[in-house]
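Subgroup meeting minutes
Present: P.N., E.W., G.H.
Scribe: E.W.

1. P.N. recapped why we're keeping a running log of single-chain structure predictions: easier to compare across weeks, and new members can see raw inputs and outputs side by side.
2. G.H. added today's entry (225 aa).
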Amino acid sequence: MATYRVNKSGKQAPPFTRILNDSLADERLSFKARGLLAYMLSKPDHFKFYIDELTKHTSEGKDSIRAGLKELEQLGYINRYPVKNERGKILSWELDLYESPSLRPESGFPVVENPTLITNDYIITNDKRFKRYIALKRDDDPYIKTYLKYFSRKKNRQHPEVTEEQREWIINQIDHLREYEVTAADWEEQVKDHFEHLPKNNNGNIMAFLHASHRRFDIGMYDQF
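Output recorded in log:
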């Protein structure tokens, strides 16, 4: 029996991933979990994983993906923890991926309630220096610009200021919608409908709109496993 491999040397080498053999040979893991680990390790270090997205790249269903993630979590390859605001409300779930459980802190499997994270080049933190309110403005994001345009038309004023933490959540949720192919045109259509039917007592905050986005776009909010 022979094994034929792709040439991975030289300037014309195709993209490839180097993974620790010990992890892929961990007999405590099913082959499903090992394959899932290999796929996740092939992604950039700050890549965000969602169950709905993972199922797009496999013949496995959601329950099977959840089972594989649970295996990895129980054996120390994954650490999952909530990111909360100052009131203790969970804003999102974060996931740390370890190529080997030996890379995890020696204390074991800590539950991190208020971590400082770098996610998609933005910072989420409980440091009070980041609690100041700022204007919601992101010139390079057409989704936010569209929302602010309709807000200004409806309310004849600027959108309320948000905290750094809230802005990060807003950006992450919009990125989440993009991952599921919600186009700028889809977004504008729903934003327009939102403001056309906005009750007078509703302040039009984008966060309330995004909390309802799973109904408008039929997409889950940070699916958990």
